[in-house]
Request: fold
Amino acid sequence: MRIDRLRITVLSAPVAEPIAMSFSQLGSRDMVLVEVLADGLTGLGESWVNYPSWAAKERVATIEEGIVPLLVDLDVSDPRAVHRHLRQRLTRLARQWGAPGPIWQAISAVDIALWDLAAQARGVPMAALLSDTAPRFAVAAYASGIGPSEVERYCEAAMVAGFGGVKARVGFGWERDEKTLRTARAVIGERAELFADANQAWSVAEAIDFAERSAGYRLGWIEEPLAGNALEDLRALADAIDTPLACGENLYGAAEFARYTGSGAVGLIQPDLAKSGGVTLAGEVAAALHAGVRLAPHCYGGAIVTAASVQFAAAHDVVPYVELDVRPNPLRDDIIGGALAVVDGKITVPTGPGLGVTLDEDAVAHYSVERRESGLRAVV
Ligand SMILES: [Mg+2]
Reply:
């Protein structure tokens, strides 16, 4: 199978008010959608562009000028082989650029699209292609995107949808963090697990302090506690506290993931399918997991990475949860007509070929701010 055309669409949707993280804030919902057209089929992919605010511009250029030339007249029927080809050609360049992230994030979009294509070509859901056994019919979801504002409102919404877990943003100082955790636990009671995400806010001493102070809230995991995710420091922290540690959304490459999953410091590893290297990379991480380490894909993007995460989770029993931002995101919900909704805490896995979701072209056009298309057949 060879690619005829590759289309990149940048989508953007405003948010009612900026969404605060411990390191920055999100001023809009942005998404880079990649459509790979081959053999009359269209594979869908997505590249992570939440930060910085100009990431989409860089990503269009990286995909168009860095990746498209490497795909011209290439046999793309085996996504793993294409993944190998792209990373061999691009990771050395990424080191010289000092930008492994954007390169992996660009590869991610193409990889998701090629898995979608491969599954469509066989007429099966992506989960069936990824799984040795029968994939799950539904996957449990946890609610993220909670705090530091409107904690009560979004925890209540999460309980109405039946989410089995709730993840709160912390790293805003103990007084505010404590208020977030107290409010969240008060709303969810014992109906759901409670997790905390610090987005790399602390030193080891600060993280130990948080873990001790928050012990009464019975956190299921503390995510990215330490600045830079330094592995030695995570080990020291893990030795000092009882709460499992989670990280992965800012790691790149299978070797780096292996260092973390084999370290004994990380109880939950979180590759992001639109960021870390696509379905292929997440599969490599899952295949190399050490005993006792679970995998929950990080997912804070649009419709396509969400659909891919659901298919991936359905195919891997080691995945306890899919992450779903509880705040509204039209680039996740509207452009696929509300598919992937959470009912009783679970998302039903689409059974159609590939990702099993269909783009609402009117909605895509509504949020589209740029569209580019490249031909990938060599001119004879
Ligand atoms: Mg996180």
Summary: The CA atoms of residues 251 and 257 lie 7 Å apart.
